[in-house]
Amino acid sequence: MTLAIRDLTVSYGPRGVSFTVADGEVVALVGESGSGKSTLIRAVLGTLPRSTAVEGAIELAGRNLIGLSEKELRAIRGREIGYVAQDPFGSADPLWTVGHHLREAWRVHGERPTDVAPRLEGLGVAEKWLGHRPNAWSGGMLQRADIIAATAHTPSVVLADEPTSALDASSADTALATLVAQTRSLLVASHDLALVCRHADRVLLLHKGELVEDIAVERGGVTRMKQLAQHPRTRALIDALPTGRTSRAHEPGDVVVRLENVTLGYGETELITGLDWEIRAGDAVGICGPSGSGKTTLLHAIAGLVQPMRGEIWRSGRAMPIFQDATASLNPRWPVGRTIVEPNRNADPRELMDRVGLTGVELDRKPAQLSGGQRQRVAIARALAGSPAVIVADEPTASLDPTVAASVARTLRAVTDSGCALVVVSHDEARLTQIVDRVHRLDPGPA
């Protein structure tokens, strides 16, 4: 079946966008934060707020989806249109096991769940994890679960919104290849330009809601896209891709965090064992490794958010976190000025915003009025407000387009100039090496 978007205009997103996803085709949507990628996908799904004005046509096999009732759309979702959500934690009910979450994809259409465990193991996650709730899963593991749910009924087309943002490079490539193999047609929105160019037939560039470029990359990688790119924004995205390590002279300071024989995990499952590690003032340290290896758990332990199963963690001062989902970590009702000074009411929010590159952004703005990159910088400013000895950042550039990710990387690196230590978890090792001075690699945990 063909998915055809014709002159699609959304009141706060795409404007006059037209393209098709032919039967058997993989089409990638790329563009800067706020360009309208997620809004376009939600328009196809029919999940935008009722007050949103949607004009044009969204046709699946010739049937216009705009104007259908919620009952009619529910019958289509899952069976004819699959969906992989951007936030894997938000898509899973925290009170139920992930196994329940997966089987619901079949039950909601009156069918018995089939092949859940083999499908999960095919993506590198053992069956035993089905009995755990989402909080025990890594973001990357949950994204793989979402891929299984989205392809449960072999739908005509799957819409995937950043389906690999929480996966390491190898797992991301495997997961997207699996998604391509298990779907008839795929429309994928992603900030990972290099990844989608390897798997997509065409790459579409959205810029400020308008479709400005449609390139037939034919799975030829970034090299082919660079050869065919015409629009300045396309070339800017390609030029912003990380190319190598950024070096600096650095004298080690006093120890601010010490881990002694630390073992971390959930329940009886040990992810990291016997870890001895020191972090010093001014250090910029990276942590990488496959999904499920314990990266986020280690970060949370350094910040004091989880306790080790064994061993001791010593800190000389305050540890401030920058969470993986910056949007969810900000109070949507608070203006950003109030959010930034939450850890320290005596801090100057204007000075902190200027420090992280938010000069000109009003203090009374709400998170919804900012782009993804701006919200990430607000989270960095809030961490700085607490005058921490160490900042821990979990995938701080994962959901950002290459140009914004490069800017946030520079902002994070500048954090250490004042002597604050920085620990960053990232799946994007090329980008990580632009932020940190050294990288610690974790072995795969028991998946």
Automatic annotation (TrEMBL):
Every ABC transporter domain range: 3-233, 257-447
SUPFAM superfamilies: P-loop containing nucleoside triphosphate hydrolases
Membrane topology: Peripheral membrane protein
Taxonomy of the source species: Bacteria, Bacillati, Actinomycetota, Actinomycetes, Pseudonocardiales
Localization per Swiss-Prot or TrEMBL: Cell membrane
PROSITE patterns, per database record: ABC_TRANSPORTER_1, ABC_TRANSPORTER_2
InterPro entries on file: AAA+_ATPase, ABC_Ni/Peptide_Import, ABC_transporter-like_ATP-bd, ABC_transporter-like_CS, P-loop_NTPase
SMART domains on file: AAA
Keyword ATP-binding: yes
Annotated source species: Allokutzneria multivorans
Protein name per the record: ABC transporter ATP-binding protein
Alphabetic keyword roster: ATP-binding, Cell inner membrane, Cell membrane, Membrane, Nucleotide-binding, Translocase, Transport
GO molecular function per UniProt: ATP binding
